[in-house]
Design goal:
The chain is mainly alpha-helical and 257 residues long. The protein has two domains: 145 residues; 56 residues. Helices cover 90% and strands 0% of the residues. It contains five helices and no strands. Helix 2 runs antiparallel to helix 3. It is rod-shaped and about 200 Å long. The two termini are 117 Å apart. InterPro entries: PspA_VIPP1. This is PspA/IM30. Pfam families: PspA_IM30. Belongs to the PspA/Vipp/IM30 family.
């Protein structure tokens, strides 16, 4: 018996889980409001039937009272004419209609109470339906928003964010490397060009200075005045020897470069 109870509990649990998963809030709410609408229609029909029955009972009650009053008047008439037996028969009829009126009055009171209860229930049901329609729209919107958010979260969780960010970082580093290489090549090219111009400027300075020295030396080496015939040039002066020694020293320095 315990095993069957456990199996039954498992089956019910699985069925409840399937039903819970299959429930669509929007469809369930629509169906609930539709069912409430049907209940409202049935209640209105019952209310209409009860009202009709109440009207009929009220008419029967009024007629019974009228008949009872009529037979009472006939009994009085019979007595006034000395027809006691006929008066007694009229009173018997009066009692019958009076009893009927009493019974109908009880039914009428019950129907009036029932109608009042049905009227309150009808008003309450209409109010609940109106409230349910308002809540339905709100709940459907919330359900759709929750479903969309769930889908978004599932999509986000399915994305390989770390891998994507790593790819972006690799590409960023690659671009930085490319920019660094480009800048280095530019600097190398610019440096080479600057060096070439620097060499040209240095060379120009040396050539200019050399030309200036040549001009100075040419100016200082103007021809001396002609000596008288028969005279000979004096031997080299100490100053000329010093100049020659300085020139020899400059040549040695240039050779050692």
């Amino acid at each position: 018996m315990g095993l069957f109870d456990r199996l039954g509990r498992v089956v019910r649990a699985n069925l409840n889980d399937l039903v819970s998963k299959a429930e669509d809030p929007e469809k369930i709410l629509e169906q609930t409001i539709e069912d409430m609408g049907k209940d409202l229609i049935e209640l209105k029909q019952a209310f209409a039937q009860t009202m009709g029955s109440q009207k009929r009972t009220e008419g029967q009650y009024t007629k019974a009272l009228q008949e009872a009053n009529s037979w009472e008047q006939r009994a009085k008439l019979a007595l006034s004419k000395g027809e006691e037996t006929l008066a007694r028969e009229a009173l018997v009829r009066k009692k019958s209609f009076t009893d009927t009126a009493t019974t109908l009055k009880e039914q009428l009171d019950q129907q009036n109470a029932q109608i009042e209860t049905m009227r309150r229930n009808l008003t309450a049901l209409e109010s609940k339906i109106a409230e349910a329609k308002t809540k339905k729209d709100m709940l459907v919107s919330r359900a759709k928003a929750a479903k969309a958010n769930e889908a978004l979260q599932s999509t986000m969780s399915g994305l390989n964010t770390s891998g994507s960010m790593a790819a972006f970082e690799r590409m960023e580093n690659k671009v930085l490397d490319m920019e660094a290489r480009s800048q280095a090549v530019g600097e190398i090219g610019g440096s080479s060009l600057e060096n070439q111009f620097a060499e040209l400027e240095a060379g120009s300075g040396v050539e200019d200075e050399l030309a200036m020295l040549k001009a100075q030396m040419t100016g200082s080496a103007e021809p001396k005045a002609a000596l008288p015939e028969g005279s000979t040039e004096d031997k080299a002066t100490p100053k000329d020897s010093a100049v020659d020694a300085e020139l020899d020293d400059l040549r040695r320095q240039l050779d050692n470069l």
